[in-house]
Write a structure and sequence with these properties.
The chain is built from 8 helices and 15 strands. With about 375 residues, the chain is an alpha+beta fold. It has 2 domains: about 180 residues, Aminopeptidase (3-Layer(aba) Sandwich), CATH 3.40.630.30; about 190 residues, Aminopeptidase, CATH 3.40.630. Strands 1-3-4-5-6-15-7 form a 7-stranded mixed β-sheet, sandwiched between helices. A 6-stranded mixed β-sheet has the order 8-14-13-11-10-9, sandwiched between helices. This is N-acetyltransferase domain-containing protein. InterPro entries: Acyl_CoA_acyltransferase, GNAT_dom, Plant_NAT.
């Protein structure tokens, strides 16, 4: 089949919106060994980057047909330790190529044009995330475009079901003011990899539902939590982002065990509604989700406090009719993941982040970044890039 010249230009909502949505429907998203996920952008193809400080979407055309898209965003974030602990980073996401036009160089052309936009805006590093077993994506970015494997974080997913979790009376949970949350994040997570310099804008965004801390009841004698930097011996914190306000998810295919479990749990729940048992939500129609970000803990009992905060968010999500799962992403070597409830069938134990230095002066430091053992580094996942 012969294809025309590939033209790449900026996205124009007036003429491209419907065509981009059609392309999305023809491209599957998600790890094949778990489920196939389809996204519903609810009429806004750039919803996943709209809240970023700087963003751009490019489209590729061949013979006036839209055959590919890519999105990118730019921010300032922590990427390594002092004396130079911040850099301008560009995030690549949403690369789609029409199934009938693959293996024609369209993907690499789109990435190249987005990298040129990054370079024009003085970006130091470009990075992207993909499934570890997505051979086509790894081959494109690592083998062909010079990206380097950087981190393998874990995506942890827990279904929102009833009954609600019981919260121990011995644990105090407090919602922080934005100013308190910003202070604590900058103090305790400012040196974490990819911590965003504009954390205040994230916390003030209408999609951020709030920040909560948990600590043993009675350990905070007086004053507000974190005032003057004072905190209990054991404590934990996290924030919640309502991703379902941006786009929806839907499972297109699922393993047989998942299908059988879903059907059986609903039948039993329908026959015996008074039984307080696990009931799998309906994942086969578009659903929203909450994203937990900024998970941090301190002290010998902090693991239990993280677990309690996660249960608190689950209970909060159960009051949102549209929310069917609670999701978080943490560093692959971060022990905090042991204290986050999740369902293995829906989770991804090893996502893959790849990174590339766009300036010659940063290539030596990139070597230092990529050789750092995962177990020694936490990772801040920006909710605007989910």
């Amino acid at each position: 089949m012969a294809f025309g010249e590939i033209k790449v230009r900026s996205y124009n909502g007036q003429i491209d919106r419907t065509r981009v949505e059609d392309l999305e429907r023809r491209c599957e998203v998600g790890p094949a060994e778990h489920v196939f996920l389809f996204t519903d952008t609810m009429g806004d193809p750039i919803c996943r980057i709209r809240n970023s400080p700087m963003y751009k979407m490019l489209v590729a055309e061949s013979n006036n047909e839209l055959v590919g898209v890519i999105q990118g965003s730019i921010k300032v974030a922590t990427v390594r330790k002092p004396p130079k602990d911040q850099a301008k980073v560009g995030y690549i996401l949403g690369l789609r190529v029409s199934p009938l036009h693959r293996r024609q160089g369209i993907g690499s052309t789109l990435v190249h044009h987005l990298e040129q936009w990054f370079i024009a805006n003085q970006v130091d590093y470009a990075y992207m995330a993909t499934e570890k077993n997505n051979q086509a994506s790894v081959k494109l970015f690592v083998d062909k475009l010079g990206y380097v494997n950087f981190r393998t974080p874990a995506i942890l997913v827990h279904p929102v079901n009833s009954p609600s979790f019981q919260i121990s009376y011995n644990i105090e949970i407090t919602k922080l003011k934005v100013e308190q949350a910003e202070f604590l994040y900058r103090k305790f997570m400012g040196s974490t990899e990819f911590f965003p310099n504009d954390i205040d804008k994230i916390l003030r965004n209408k999609l951020s539902l709030g920040t909560w801390v948990a600590y043993p009841r009675g350990e905070l004698s007086s004053g507000e939590f974190g005032s003057d930097g004072r905190v209990p011996n054991s404590w934990a914190m996290l924030s919640v982002w309502n991703s379902g306000e941006l786009f929806k998810l839907r499972i297109g295919k699922a393993p047989l065990t998942c299908l059988l479990y879903a059907k059986c749990s609903r039948l039993i729940h329908k026959a015996f509604p008074c039984l307080k048992m696990f009931s799998l939500p309906d994942f086969f129609h578009p659903f929203g989700f909450y994203f937990m970000y900024g998970l941090h803990r301190e002290g010998p009992f902090s693991g239990k406090l993280v677990w309690t905060l996660c249960k608190f968010v689950h209970n909060m999500a159960s009051n949102c009719k549209d929310c069917k799962v609670v999701v978080t992403e943490v560093g692959g070597g971060d022990a905090v993941k042991l204290h986050i409830p999740h369902w293995k069938l829906l989770s991804c134990p090893e996502d893959l982040w790849c990174i590339k230095a766009l300036k010659n002066s940063e290539r030596n430091s990139l070597y230092e970044l990529t050789r750092t053992p995962q177990a020694t580094r936490a990772l801040f996942v920006d909710p605007r890039e989910v």
